[in-house]
Every structure is written in structure tokens, then in C-alpha cells.
Design a protein that fits this description.
The complex is a heterodimer. By secondary structure, chain A is mostly helical. Chain A has helices at residues 15-39, 45-68, 74-96, 117-134. Chain B has one domain. The longest helix of chain B has 25 residues, at 4-28.
Chain lengths: 144, 119
């Protein structure tokens, strides 16, 4: 490791934490959805497909944040709102139409099974993105 | 008396909580990530490998109720920290400590889930 690598440089930033959490949730939601779809599909197919959709959203969110960290914020502006809308829609439906969810999905009850992190994550992402957009071009945190 | 793997899980969860708290303290103090935090994280990884090896025993006999879920948690328990450490390999700034905190919390949760799905 070089001396330069010890300097807090433009490669660092809050996006590193967001990327770690998005990667974790893509893995967790994806593995959960695939296992449930493969082994107990008939129990709650809607919930399991929604979990898979959540996993895809987290994977795309990871890519979007990575792009935004180098100044390309367009995709993240869309994806983070899509994710927030997904959590709010599925969370609300799971409460008002509980018959549709015999088993929980990742976003059921606004992500209560994951300590409400699914609800907080897009909000944290949007706050970071707002800050990122305010930075002058060329001074964004870089990840590659 | 709890099984050996359950006892190791207790140690893993307690140690993961310690690493998460220390990493968070370092991050909140806005300091550069110290070398000892890396060493603590890798010691946690070593514990997780020991827990995973002990957990392989649960695959014998009747096995866990859902083998695929159990194996998934087993693999996740040993993969998460190395991936997190790789992502901050060249970054010793304040946010890299927060990544270790997130990873430590995650492996603690995975260790609990691993124990819950073992039988």
C-alpha cells in the first residue's frame, strides 16, 4: 500500500457505505427470493416475485450510485425514486391488503423484517444524491 | 449445554458487535482508518471461518430444515467481510470505517440467522 493511498482522497465518501448496503441487500433479497421461488412457490408467489424485484432494484441502485459517484447522476435520480416508490407501495399494500401477502416480501410492512433499512435506504440515497448534484463538476467523489 | 457451533455463534455475534461499535466510533471521530481496525475485522473473519467449518457438521444426518437457506447463510457469513475489505482496500478515509461497521453488523445478523436455520 502506498503512502498516497492513506490520504483521504476523492475516491472516498458516503457513497462507499451506500454501495456496501446496496450490495448486501441485493445479495440478501436475491438469495431469499430465489430460494423461496424455487422451494415454496405456491405459498406466496406475489410476495416472492416482489422480493426478486426488490433484489433487482438494489442491484440497479448499486450501479446507479456508483455512476452518480463519478458525476453521472441521471440514472440514480430515477432509480432511487423508483426504489422509494416500490417500498412505499408494497409496504402499504401489505398492510391494507394482507390477503395478497400470505408470506412476507422484502418490502412488506416497509421492510420491518430488515429493521426498516429498506425504507431508510432510498431516502439516504436521495439525500446523498442531492448533495452530490450540488458539487461542482469534476469534484465528485470517485469510485474507480 | 449449547452445541459447539452455537457457542462459537455467541462469540462471533459479540465480537462482531464490538468491531461494529469500534468502527463506528472511529468513523464518528472523523479519523483515518487505523490498522488495528483492519486486524480486528480479519480476526472476525477468522472466527466466521471457524463457525462455518463447525456449521458444516449440521449438513450431516437429518440436516437443516432448508439446506439451501442454510448453505446460503454459511457462504454469506464468510464472503461478506472479504468483499467489504476489498472495496475499501485503497481507501483509509473516514467512510471506510463506516463500511467495516456495516459489514460487521451484517455478519452478526447472518451468524444469528445461520444459527436459527441450523435446526
Amino acid at each position: 500500500m502506498t503512502t498516497a493511498s492513506h490520504e483521504p482522497g476523492p475516491r472516498s465518501g458516503p457513497h462507499k457505505v451506500l454501495l456496501a448496503v446496496y450490495a448486501l441487500f441485493a445479495l440478501a433479497a436475491g438469495a431469499r427470493a430465489l430460494v423461496q421461488l424455487a422451494t415454496q412457490y405456491d405459498e406466496a408467489p406475489v410476495a416472492y416475485w416482489l422480493s426478486l424485484a426488490a433484489a433487482v432494484t438494489y442491484a440497479l441502485g448499486w450501479y446507479a450510485i456508483r455512476q452518480a459517484s463519478v458525476g453521472h447522476t441521471g440514472f440514480a435520480s430515477v432509480m432511487l425514486w423508483v426504489e422509494l416508490a416500490g417500498v412505499l407501495t408494497v409496504g402499504t399494500l401489505s398492510l391494507v391488503e394482507s390477503d395478497w401477502f400470505p408470506d412476507a416480501s422484502v418490502w412488506s410492512d416497509y421492510g420491518i423484517g430488515y429493521g426498516f433499512v429498506p425504507a431508510a435506504l432510498p431516502i439516504a440515497g436521495l439525500l446523498w444524491l442531492r448533495q452530490q448534484k450540488r458539487l461542482p463538476v469534476g469534484s465528485q467523489s470517485r469510485d474507480d | 449445554m449449547p452445541s459447539v457451533s452455537t457457542q462459537i455463534t455467541f462469540i462471533v455475534v459479540g465480537y462482531a458487535a464490538l468491531v461494529a461499535v469500534l468502527a463506528l466510533v472511529v468513523a464518528l471521530r472523523h479519523g483515518e482508518r487505523p490498522g488495528w481496525l483492519d486486524q480486528l475485522a480479519w480476526m472476525l473473519e477468522a472466527l466466521l471461518v471457524v463457525r462455518a467449518l463447525a456449521g458444516l457438521g449440521a449438513l450431516g444426518g437429518d440436516g437443516p430444515p432448508s439446506t439451501s437457506t442454510y448453505v446460503g447463510y454459511l457462504l454469506a457469513s464468510v464472503c461478506v467481510l472479504p468483499i467489504a475489505m476489498q472495496s475499501i482496500k485503497d481507501d483509509r478515509a473516514v467512510w471506510s470505517s463506516a463500511v467495516i461497521a456495516v459489514a460487521a453488523v451484517a455478519v452478526g445478523v447472518v451468524a444469528v440467522r445461520l444459527e436459527m436455520t441450523a435446526s
